[in-house]
């Protein structure tokens, strides 16, 4: 349906001409048609699924300006620049602007000279902005990152609660809320709080087939990370998540010392440094951002090739959101997590010592348990991840692109080992009235006469030396898995081991315990099925691709734009493969729209010709 005054006839025209894409993806077409016709929508789609087109295209097709509410103030300039490069008339209103910029944007909005206007949620609740919106013609309201309305999620923004005014003041303007947060509880909360219960809900598959999920046993995390980067991701852009600010700093320094370009990001850095580091990460090729979870929401850099976690995320939701920042362009990417005994001890301790009430703690424990189950599974990681979000995998019998599918871990009957470990803890407690951390129990089982063993005469215990059949690392694996399964617990500041209700069952022999054997050394994984065929360039195309990348880097620098705003890697690869000689041929490549063709087309042809 077209209304008078819009610049484009159909959604498909906009897709082809402006964005340069041949076809819609997944549910995009249904969503776009629904909104173009004035319907409300709630869209759940994974990161990289293509949510932006779902409101950008209807904004161009419908009469008036599309108003986008987004919490990502620091990224608005980039989003607007990217749209302008496509030839879309976009602007934003937020607190970073000066008076003149604001006046100019407001005037453009009122006179209908904008296609899209981005506003921060806090701006929307001011009477001034509301009066402004009354003076223009609004095509739709898009509520981006809609999970920010959820008070239980990690990204809660109080101003989002005020967004129900949109419906009351502009009942005829369609609203589309979008999020990548998948659980049904959050979805219900969004629908209720934003008064979108009667909106049509669109839920996409949350599978990210191009991401290879890997979870490894942590021993020397920084060394392990370095090896991953050197062997598989040399020169790639990526994000490394750490739990604490201190470890962010240390890790960034470590990587830099090893010759890898890395920057830190955490809430303890001043705003200027944070903004500068974020901007460099977006603009330069191949930078590694070492960050706490303060970093990442809305980062739409498409060529993040890996996301590495040096510490255990607190929940599967968090893990999924963070790893989801890899591979938005659909090319093969790695999600890598190093996880060890200390993570379990530390996180359990954090929950125990938190100020939250019992409900909070129960919640946090349940989240942690689900995360631990994902770490300890011998089944396909992807199947387990999707099952957590109530979805099933596209294939059965494994995805072929996660560590457990690529290197199936053996499981072994760990009942006797569990009994030995648990009875050591029991004896220390019963016979000596003592509690110790994991290290002491393991030393006892291995029969080590350390100073501490001698001091406490633990060599007199009947369990001393009864566990020499396993190596120390294997015993740590046993402790970790018992903790993960709730068959053992930690308490206090020193993380001492204590028995749980479940321990008794194991000790009595009423409960067998199957364990996961860590492969001695994990071979670098190679996907059996290629997730993205575009990854491999035909023979001879590699140098062409590199030449195009060099050209892109110089244009990006000159125009002060992130490189991917000019063209994505996937588009450059397609150009390198096709090697067009005319503008017309170049225009057929996915990602080359009219405006970019006019602006950059000749330069691309020149670069191809080697000039
Ligand atoms: P999301 O906001 O859901 O994370 P984006 O809207 O940023 O995802 O889209 C992810 C990437 O996919 C972007 O680089 C976008 O240009 C690209 N994309 C989206 N829709 C299509 C399509 N129909 N065809 C080709 N590429 C697309
Ligand atoms: Zn798998």
Q: By helix and strand content, what is the structural category?
A: alpha/beta
Q: How many distinct folded domains?
A: 4
Any idea what the CATH superfamily of the largest domain is called? P-loop containing nucleotide triphosphate hydrolases
Q: Architecture of the largest domain, according to CATH?
A: 3-Layer(aba) Sandwich
Sheet having the most strands: 7 strands, parallel
Instruction: Please list the strands of the largest sheet in the order they lie side by side.
Output: 3-4-2-5-6-1-7
Distinct small-molecule ligands in the complex: adenosine-5'-diphosphate, zinc ion
Q: Based on DSSP secondary structure assignment, what is the total number of beta strands?
A: 17
């Amino acid at each position: 349906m077209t209304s008078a005054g819009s610049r484009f006839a159909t959604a498909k025209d906009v897709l082809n001409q402006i964005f340069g894409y041949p076809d819609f993806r997944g549910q995009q077409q249904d969503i776009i048609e629904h909104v173009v016709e004035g319907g409300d929508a709630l869209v759940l789609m994974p990161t990289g699924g293509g949510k932006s087109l779902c409101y950008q295209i209807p904004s161009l097709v419908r009469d008036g300006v599309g108003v986008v509410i987004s919490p990502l103030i620091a990224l608005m300039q980039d989003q607007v620049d990217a749209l302008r490069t496509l030839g879309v008339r976009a602007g934003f209103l937020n607190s970073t602007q000066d008076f003149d910029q604001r006046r100019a944007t407001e005037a453009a909005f009122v006179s209908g000279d904008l296609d899209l206007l981005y506003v921060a949620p806090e701006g929307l609740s001011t009477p001034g902005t509301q009066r402004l919106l009354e003076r223009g013609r609004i095509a739709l309201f898009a509520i981006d990152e809609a999970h920010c309305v959820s008070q239980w999620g990690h990204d809660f923004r109080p101003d989002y609660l005020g967004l129900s005014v949109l419906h009351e003041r502009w009942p005829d303007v369609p609203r589309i809320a979008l999020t990548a947060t998948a659980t049904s509880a959050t979805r219900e909360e969004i629908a209720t709080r934003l008064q979108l219960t009667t909106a049509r809900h669109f839920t996409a598959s949350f599978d990210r087939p191009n991401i290879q999920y890997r979870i490894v046993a942590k021993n020397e995390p920084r060394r392990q990370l370095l090896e991953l980067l050197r062997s598989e991701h040399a020169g790639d852009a990526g994000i490394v998540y750490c739990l604490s600010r201190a470890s962010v700093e240390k890790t960034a320094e470590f990587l830099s010392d090893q010759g890898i370009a890395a920057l830190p990001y955490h809430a303890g850095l001043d705003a200027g440094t944070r903004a500068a580091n974020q901007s460099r990460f977006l603009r330069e090729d191949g930078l590694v951002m070492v960050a706490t979870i303060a970093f990442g929401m809305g980062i739409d850099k498409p060529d993040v090739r890996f996301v590495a976690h040096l510490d255990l995320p607190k929940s599967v939701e968090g893990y999924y959101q963070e790893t989801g920042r890899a591979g938005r362009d659909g090319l093969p990417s790695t999600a890598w997590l190093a996880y060890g005994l200390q993570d379990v001890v530390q996180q359990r301790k954090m929950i125990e010592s938190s100020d939250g009430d019992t409900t909070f703690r129960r919640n946090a424990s349940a989240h942690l348990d689900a995360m631990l189950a994902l770490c300890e599974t011998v089944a396909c990681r992807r199947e387990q991840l999707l099952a957590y979000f109530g979805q099933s995998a596209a294939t059965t019998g494994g995805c072929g692109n996660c560590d457990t599918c690529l290197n199936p871990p053996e499981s072994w009957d760990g009942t006797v080992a569990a009994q030995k470990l648990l009875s050591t803890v029991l004896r220390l407690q019963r016979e000596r009235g003592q509690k110790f951390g994991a290290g002491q129990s393991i030393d006892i089982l291995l029969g080590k006469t350390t100073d501490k063993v001698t001091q406490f005469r633990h060599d007199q215990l009947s369990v001393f030396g009864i566990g020499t059949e396993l190596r120390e690392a294997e015993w740590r694996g046993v402790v970790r898995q018992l903790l993960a399964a709730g068959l053992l617990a930690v308490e206090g500041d020193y993380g001492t081991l204590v028995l749980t209700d479940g321990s008794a069952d194991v000790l009595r022999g009423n409960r067998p315990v199957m364990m996961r054997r860590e492969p001695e050394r994990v071979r670098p994984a190679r996907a059996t099925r290629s997730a993205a065929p575009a990854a491999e360039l035909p023979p001879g195309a590699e140098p062409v691709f590199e030449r195009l990348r060099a050209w892109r880097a110089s244009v990006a620098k000159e125009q002060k734009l992130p490189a991917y705003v000019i063209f994505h890697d996937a588009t450059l690869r397609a150009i390198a493969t096709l090697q067009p000689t005319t503008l017309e041929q170049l225009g057929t490549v996915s990602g080359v729209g009219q405006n970019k063709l006019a602006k950059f087309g000749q330069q691309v042809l020149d670069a191809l010709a080697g000039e």
